Amino acid sequence: MPKRLKCAVIGVGKMGINHVRVYASIPQVKFVGIGEVNKTLGEKVASQYGLNHYTDYKDLIMAEQPDLVSICVPTSFHYQVASYFLRKNINILLEKPIATTVDEAKALVALAKKYKTSLLVGHIERFNPAVKKVKQIINSGKIGKVTSIIARRVGGFPFQIRDANIMVDLAIHDLDIVNYLLDSLPQVVTVSKHRIHTKTREDSVEYFLQYKNTSAYIQSNWITPVKIRKLLITGSEGYLELDYITQKIEFYKSNYDKFKEETKGFSDFILKFSSSDRQIISVAKKEPLTEEIKYFINKVASNEQVVSQFAVEALKIALT
């Protein structure tokens, strides 16, 4: 029977507690403890899950010697904490963004390579089954050449986030997903940032990205009182609409060839264009975080190194 990998979670705030929940549900790993500077919170979570609690993650390493950890501390501590674990040859799943600066991000990637240790950055939408399906559809050529992508990720103000702006908290998700879907990086990036409700950091942003043959518009803010997470993709042969939350995909096939063959006048064109066929593409709904953590565990178990260079590229664009 293969050895059970020992895992731990560093930081059990809003996101970290979800990592705790997922690890606790996976029998292939041995959950050995949590690191949390807030003693009251740490002891509460540790008691709930029957874990050991450490206020200092260095003590956790010494006592438990984990094989892998999730690091869910505030962004301003990412480099400090992640670099320490990498130097100890401990595989890490680091919540996004990878770091506060591009230089720190590059340094973490360099450390992972130097110590031959996995560094997976938690761009969680890459593990959304609906996103994976959209990627397959694009690669199959079903919608033809992708001409434009529009992403909207908006909602109310998150009072628990104190050390990140809208670019690295929300927009970075879609910046990464567009790169992922197109398998390329933008040639030109234009950005418009705003401070609507707070004077200390941006709470609204729009990006316009120009790729070789595709343009993308990304809107993110903390000022829209409705939570929206959508991706709209137009191709030469069809159109896709994805809802990240419901994991629902709608596909509309282009009617342009039919129009060329069958229409005789402008009125016929309007009629046919407005009656495009609509197809709902189903996917088996899965929690992206669970899929991400299982992927991480499997890579570590099989000694396959993961180094998230893509996270550096996404941060570069976000900080433009």
TrEMBL record:
Residues 5-123 form the Gfo/Idh/MocA-like oxidoreductase N-terminal domain. GO terms for molecular function: nucleotide binding. Residues 131-241 form the GFO/IDH/MocA-like oxidoreductase domain. Coiled coil: none annotated. Transmembrane segments: none annotated. Pfam families: GFO_IDH_MocA, GFO_IDH_MocA_C3. InterPro entries: Gfo/Idh/MocA-like_OxRdtase_N (IPR000683), Gfo/Idh/MocA_Oxidoreductases (IPR051450), GFO_IDH_MocA-like_dom (IPR055170), NAD(P)-bd_dom_sf (IPR036291). PANTHER family: BILIVERDIN REDUCTASE A. This is Gfo/Idh/MocA-like oxidoreductase N-terminal domain-containing protein. The lineage of its organism: Bacteria, Candidatus Roizmaniibacteriota.
